[in-house]
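=== Structure Prediction Worksheet ===
Name of assembly: unnamed complex
Input type: mixed (protein and possibly other molecules)
Chain count: two
Listed entries:
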Amino acid sequence: MLNIGMSIPRLDARKKVSGLEKYAADFYGLDFVWAGVKRAGIPHARIRGIEIESAKKIPGVINVLTCRDVKGSNRQGVVRKDEPVLADDRVRHCGDAVALVIAEDKMALSRALEQIIPDYDPIPGVFDPEEALKTEAPLVHEDNPEKNLLMKGFLSTGCAENAFNECDAVVEACFEVPFQEHAYLETEAGWALLNKDDRLEIVVSTQTPFRDRAEVSEAIGIEEEKIRIIAPYCGGAFGGKDGVTVQSLLALAALCCPERPVKMWWGREESFISSAKRHMARLYYRLGAKSDGKFHALEARIYYDTGPYDHLGGVVMALGLEHAGGAYRIPNTDLKAWSVYTNNPVGGPFRGFGVVQVTAAMEQMVDMLAVELAIDPVELRLRNALGKGDKNPIGVTMSGSTGIEECLATLKGNPLWEDREKWKSKAGSFKRRGAGMTSVMQGMGYGPVVPDVANAKIELTEGGKFRVFCGVVDMGQGNATTYAQIACEVLGQDIRDMELVLPDTSKTLPSGSASASRTTYTFGNALIGAAEILKERILKCANRVFMNGEGSDIALIPGGVRNIPSGQEISLSEIAGLLGNSERLAVSRFQAPVSTETPAEDPILRVYGVPHVIFSFGAHAAFIEVDELTGRIEVVKYITVTDCGRIINPQLFEQQMQGGVAQGIGYALMEDFVTERGFVNTPDLATYIIPTAMDMPDMDSITVDAYEPTGPFGLKGAGEVACNGPLPAIANALADACGIRVLRSPLTPERVLAEMNKEK
Amino acid sequence: MKISFILNGTETCIDVAPDKRVIDVLREDLCLTGTKEACGSGECGACTVIADGETRLSCLMLAAQLEGRNLVTIEGLGSEKSLHPVQEAFMEHGAVQCGFCTPGMVLSAVALLKKNPGPSREEIRKGISGNLCRCTGYQKIVDAISEAAVKMGRPDK
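=== Predicted Assembly ===
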């Protein structure tokens, strides 16, 4: 019976296809009430007052709350706590929450929300990250000593300024990438109940139950021990539920109607307007090489628009900065990035976490340089690809498994890629075909300072099965199933005998966020430790029963333990009966390895996660067809070649690759979260277009034979790396097909056509 | 208002406001939370149900429109123990990730296969193009529906 390396269908699939899995949005409860939020509807204003009395009088309305009713700090945020739960003196973007309504039914709720009319004194806003850094720009936070700057980071190696003079070819461009909406199908949802004993229970769609508990406690002013957060499977998250969404609001609502369940479920428009987005960014790049194709100098200036709140915007910027030069050896670099406050929608974590933006710029620069030097794009990347022991573009030694060269070499030899000229020549009339490629990489975990820790717990039940207490949320990636596979492997059991307990601050142990491509790596390692401890106890106990000496030849088999020489067996339920209750439980802690190098003089960058030691890598290729008449790009085929270490479950791995590519293709071609002076022009799925089944090509998900020695069974994170590829691969394919570069994405038909017409 | 209809094979009579959305009737009054809401405006397909053999969006349908209909929701398609072949194929082929689009997607696939028992991959893509999925990139969903079509087409199934 093999576990590791097998495509075992995820354990949650049966309940999900049957419609029986309960998501946070599916909790109602007897005598429940609805809570809803009045949104600002204006990007920047002082609040003179909020008239709530007439809303309170509407039949069915239980209460209307404003910031005055918040007993705690009324501030949320992971790094800088700058976001009010309910706005106090001003609103800073259209989605700010200004009042909270609790009502008996949805009708009363919506009437009350309409009835609340805040008295605003509009103030000029700022809507562009570079504009926001100018001295005369309106201030988003008047108390921020650095004005509209949230955070900046500078990293360099060698001397880029002089090195550009030594280059034989230099390319330069400015790219702009838009806000991207997560568009998870399950919008923000939760359910809360203040129990008789004053304990607050919150069921919520979240990536971060333990951190949420601390945040809610501080913001609302309830002791942390009194809050329990339960995190069912999410209906999608992708970073958008990394941090508080409905939690504090639900807590406030529950406090004012004790012993009655409160439900909150944002509508799609509310979700789009108020939730965090992938940061819009503007990136100025200059890359130079010697005539032999060796990269010699890189300069980058990167501006991330974080909207009005931190919401991990500094950390996102730091990761982007660390990845700004890609998976290459570049001896002279000068990299600078800024994360800037504006009155646009909130920028925040989204799969890729700042790396998507820089990869789009860097990988187009590489192709532009390939054209200048007349070197094949794969060959150029191969000449510069990082190997283990090399220093990366921020001067840090690559000490983890580094398979970028293998990925590139595999793509180079792929028959589709090799035969691309033939394929291109077969384009129909008014069509042009192109093939483009890119490298991708993604650092894993929290970096050197914030402890990247997981605590696993596993129990041998009285019935002789195993119960895995998952510390990290499964938001759809399937990590819970992978945990079961890992425990099976260590304990020699069948996956059907594994039971999963999903994250719950009262049952499972704190294990950090479901983010940063860390979930299976960090928790998996902790789980191996816990399962080994339990295994040893079981074998020891069995040895006593078999009356064997130490070191006898006995083995765990499905459902029991066998004394190999005698063939005698004892069942796991019997063992469970012999072990004490505390012995049937094993826990183990794992902390991810960190880098000891300090690439920057600025120590704050280490706190913000720079540098990482373990990276996943990939090489992608996009095969596209461009309609000369409409400018529309169709992606016909997409290939990913990936180094994520050893693959524990190929089916789940492919899901991550294909899903990441789909979000990347959306980002490359159609997803454009449009705002106009802070007002959202794309508030729904009719105006913000995500890919349908007809927009997606078939994808090949290829792996290289890789192994990360520190990973559980050799694994590295796979959740994010794929989404970095599609924009640069498709943009490079467009250049290949039509000889044009559309520097502002997404590459919509209008933009492509306009650029094609310029060429004529 | 009293409304009579067949729900998942059972004669059902409910007393609800005629203008209540069918998705709310299902989720709030009948505790059938398998039908999901993800946009509330007919753009995503998550709330798909089958009414008289045709897919319908339950967020755009009002309770009064249920009168006399034969309604199938995801809960009525198969049981957890005995799945419909389309559900089985979704599970086996990895077509489920977060699973929030899954009920609607499965019902659209069932309706598609009823009309076209042997669809090409392109026809499948077109058939489910009204159902948005944010996790999978659709490839494994298309694989699953192709496989289900083959299995359902076999007389020995």
